[in-house]
Design brief:
single chain, Rossmann fold, 8-stranded mixed β-sheet, 14 helices, 18% strand, binds S-adenosylmethionine, S-adenosyl-L-methionine, transferase, Erg6_SMT_methyltransf
């Protein structure tokens, strides 16, 4: 049968599966207050982090496939580490740095910086469950490296890993300026990978980063963005379902972040480098990984947010294919 002339052609990558069709979800719990949104974010990571670890590994961030060869051959685990390497390249964070890893997930990046670069890393996350998982994974890795059974934290909570050390804390990043006030200027680097898009007050984050960095310290950032100058239709089709399902306050543009950083007294030192086409494969892999009825069943038990989360994977693929949704890395210096 001929396609009716009025139908919208399917966007490349916008693939509905039989499984996802069974869980069609109406859009849009408006975030009534920013505290309500934070509570939902915390609950999401408390409930879903074991699943992230099983499905996605120790990094809860995109993979970076920079070349055709990498796109054809690199696993997602290799590509996820390559994103960290890219951030190190653009920022020049040095070996042995004292790093604050903001929104640290289950600690994959913190452990990498400690074990590979000898950094002293404090990871903070809003999810207490993530602190537990991150600490457990770190102790296991340290025990393996030291060929010992018991690994204990030191008096400040740090666990030694290679030449570096790591600790994890449950802390709302919006409080980090106050929390680390006594250590003002203590960090050589603030690292934030795919967490800032969750924060309601982006300007406050840049001010806090400035507060806790040493003079000459670096802010290293990877995040999700909307494209400049989007029309209402593109916004409604692509960006709104991402903000809704991924629990994000309104997404910013890349230049929006640059302006927040300038206003906070930070200078741009790397990027913004838009790497959307080199990271979008992440969601092709993710969409195929979640074609599992047990996972949708689990998401269903979390209520509407759980289902909207899985459904938004399609919107991520559509947004990348349409160019309305973007990914970039950048670095700043105090
Ligand atoms: C997509 S994960 C990224 C994890 C990690 N940076 C990585 O690259 O693997 C987002 C992280 O942001 C954290 N997060 C979100 N809102 C936060 C807040 N207000 N304060 C601290 N952490 C927050 C979540 O708990 C989660 O660890």
């Amino acid at each position: 049968m001929a396609t009716p002339a009025t139908s919208t052609p399917a966007t490349a990558g916008d693939e509905v599966t039989e499984l996802s069709k069974q869980y069609d979800t109406p859009m849009g719990l408006a975030h009534t207050t920013m505290q309500a949104l934070k509570d939902r974010i915390k609950l999401h990571y408390d409930l879903a982090s074991d699943y992230y670890l099983n499905l996605w590994g120790e990094h809860i961030h995109h993979g970076y496939w920079a070349t055709d060869n990498a796109k054809a051959n690199d696993s997602k685990e290799v590509a996820q580490v390559n994103l960290i390497r890219l951030l190190l390249d653009i920022s020049g964070v040095a070996e042995g740095s004292h790093v604050l890893d903001v929104g640290c997930g289950i600690g994959g990046t913190s452990r990498y910086l400690a074990s590979q670069l000898g950094c002293t890393v404090t990871g903070i996350t809003i999810s207490g469950k993530q602190v537990q998982i991150a600490t457990r994974l770190t102790k296991t890795e340290a025990a393996k490296a030291e060929m010992s059974k018991d690994v204990e934290a030191d008096a400040d909570g740090f666990i030694s890993l290679g030449k570096g050390k790591v600790r994890f804390m449950e802390l709302d990043a919006e409080l980090m300026g106050e929390f680390f006030a006594k250590d003002t200027g203590a960090f050589d680097a603030v690292w934030i990978s795919e967490a800032l898009s969750h924060f309601p007050n982006k300007g406050l984050f840049f001010q806090n980063a400035h507060k806790v960095l040493k003079k000459g310290g670096k802010l290293v950032l990877a995040d999700w963005f909307k494209a400049e100058g989007l029309g209402q239709k593109e916004f409604d089709n692509d960006i709104k379902p991402i903000e809704d399902g991924m629990l994000l306050p309104p997404l910013c543009t890349q230049q929006g972040y640059v302006q927040f950083a300038k206003d906070a007294g930070l200078e741009i030192s790397g990027g913004p480098k838009d790497i959307s086409k080199d990271v979008s494969k992440t969601w092709d892999i993710s969409w195929s990984l979640v074609q599992n009825p047990a996972l949708w069943g689990f998401a269903f038990t979390q209520g509407r947010d759980g289902i909207a989360f899985l459904q938004s994977f399609r919107a991520m693929r559509r947004g990348y294919a349409n160019g309305s949704f973007r990914y970039a890395v950048m670095s700043f210096i105090k």
